[in-house]
Amino acid sequence: MNLELLDFTRRALEQGLPRERISGALHDAGWSPADVNAALAAFAETDFPLPVPRPRPYLSAQEVFVYALMFTALYASAWNLGALVFRFIDLAVPDPARRVFHAVLMDGVRRNIAALVVAFPLFAFLLRHVHAAIDRDPTKRESRPRKWLTWLTLFIAAAALIGDVSALVYNVLGGELGARFLLKVATVAVIAGGTFGYFLADIRKDEAA
Question: Which residue range or ranges hold the DUF5671 domain (predicted)?
Answer without folding.
Answer: 63-196
